[in-house]
Amino acid sequence: MAQREATAPVSLRASGAVARRQAVSRGSRYVLLAATLVGVFVLLVLAYETAIEGADRISWSFITNYPSRFADQAGLRSSILGTAWVMGATIALAFPIAIGTAIWMEEFAPRNILLTIVKLNLANLAGVPSIIYGILGLALFVRFLEMGPSILAGAFTLSLMIIPMTVIASQEAIRQVPPSIKEASLAVGATHWQTVRHHVLPGAMPGIMTGIILATSRAIGETAALIMIGAFTFIAFDNTSLTDDFTTVPIQIYNWTIRPQEAFRQNAAAAIILLMVAVVGLNLIAALIRERFRRE
Amino acid sequence: MTETKLPVQPPEVRVAAPGAALARAPAERREPAAGRAIIDPPEPAVFALDGLNLWYGHKHALAGVTMNYPVNRVTALIGPSGCGKSTLLRCLNRMNDLIPGVRVSGTIQYHGANIYDRQVDPVEVRRRIGMVFQKPNPFPKSIYDNVAFGARVNGFRGRMDDLVEGCLRQAALWDEVKDDLRKSGLALSGGQQQRLCIARALAVQPDVILMDEPCSALDPIATLKIEDLIRELVKDFTIVIVTHNMQQAARVSDYTAFMLLAHEGGPGELIEYGLTNELFTNPRDHRTEDYITGRFG
């Protein structure tokens, strides 16, 4: 102790370069927080405005009524049914194809130039504006394959739109499965497929689910592509088959927002609230499924 | 191509005793001809390698490996990093097939059948030749399912509970986990995880277990447990172990093979192969001596 008192104690307070670096570090936290708050704030304002405007219109009859030229009698019945049909068909169509593609590309495909080109194309396709998919859907499914503006044509079009993003998310998830797990499986005499089925897929499932959630949310809110194939119509009957004409909730919302009357704007706000609740609900369910996989 | 190699003996013919190989080896010859310091173990061979070469793309990784692995013995592969020990080990159950661009020449006879034959199915090979890896890699599943998986995919028909218990007992893990077989394999300690991986390998009832530096991620106590286990298992299985740890090779193995990149940037070669005792106390090749005395590598 005596020795230490003889010399001046070392100062461990930040000074000079360390002090500057620490100041930047402390500052970065607030910059990042501000960036986050911008998004949250905009979302809250939008949600609040919408809720104020549309809350009064939400009622059971708003959900069960067909659209009408009288705003107070108009409802979402046919568009909710249309959304349910087209989403059901899209999910059934797109996700098996997307996950199958991802597994093949990551696990089975020969590593050659063709695969690289396909991967590059997928990344590009995921960035193509949805209206382009709408034009493609109109030309290919509605006209050339003579499906008309049907639920099936809508599902095919939406599938085309979400398959690339789902494939990319699934590939990423599959790549995250450690090679050591695959080796362990193969080393006990499992076949390649058994290894994929029992280890790669379960390991990748949380990531794949995230991709599915994002893709579903995008498809359920899609408007432009479906307007393009002719779903911007007045539907006053319940859809019963894949060949029916249809409309969807986002299209109904768009329809209402372009009317001059204030009452229809309120309808649109109410529909937005319902759509938002539905999307959040779906995401919640998917997140729960994902957490189950993650725990296993 | 293989004129300088020892003739590969069928398992039932026992020719070369360790001493015979020694007599054949001139003391100072620059060119290390295979067979000089390489004995042919008298026990029946589970694997008989003849002129095994391996390339990763254009890189020649293994050259002219000719050696036999005796049944119910522990054979250790030692040598500096990058000398091809693990590559050689992974040839024995065709795990190298998974790496794109791998090419193999020469033969590996496993009980008389060349495992690199065209009509051989690698799944059939791996079912008989188990493997334990460097880093413990249990499946993210329960302890029970970790052991049962291999048996299930191989169509095991029998009492799974008995099989799981038997394998965990054989791997000296049963007493530590018997009360929570439903717990995740990942919840175990490193040493326990590695013993779980051994139990998992045993569950498909192989007759060979390959171990690729099984203790390199473990502490000394866990290492000792695995080493004891290896000595126990060798009564029923043939074991080939790659290790960086020469003391470990000396402790657990009956035979030791020393490998080296004989030329800078060249392929890995088998330099010396003999009874562990003899190799460590009386190495015949000066490079083996340099390595085990710590002069290089």
Give a written overview of the molecule:
- The complex is a heterodimer of chains A (296) and B (297).
- Chain A has 296 residues and is mainly alpha-helical.
- Chain A contains 12 helices and no strands.
- The longest helix of chain A is centred in the N-terminal third of the chain and has 39 residues, at 16-54.
- Chain B has 297 residues and is of the alpha/beta class.
- The radius of gyration of chain B is 19 Å and the shape is globular.
- The chains are: A mainly alpha (296), B alpha/beta (297).
- Chains A and B meet through α8 and α9 of A and α3, α4 and α7 of B.
Chain pair sharing the greatest interface: A-B, 19 and 26 residues
**Rg on CA atoms of chain A, Å:** 26 Å
Spans of chain A of 5+ residues with little confidence (pLDDT < 50)? none
SSE sequence of chain B, one letter per element: HEEEHEEHEHHHHEHEHEEHH
* Strand order of the biggest β-sheet of chain B: 6-7-8-3-9-10
Helical stretch tally of chain A: 12
Give me the count of strands of chain A.
0
Outline of chain B: globular
- By DSSP, the count of extended strands of chain B is 10
| Secondary-structure element pattern of chain A, one letter each | HHHHHHHHHHHH
Strand content of chain A: under 5%
Gross morphology of chain A is: globular
Oligomerization: heterodimer
Distance between the termini of chain B: 30 Å
**How would you state the average pLDDT of chain A, rounded?**
91
The helix count of chain B comes to: 11
Taking the sheet with the most strands of chain B, its summary is:
6 strands, mixed
Classify the helix fraction of chain B into a percent range. 25-40%
- Terminus-to-terminus distance of chain A: 57 Å
- Percent of residues in beta strands of chain B: 15-25%
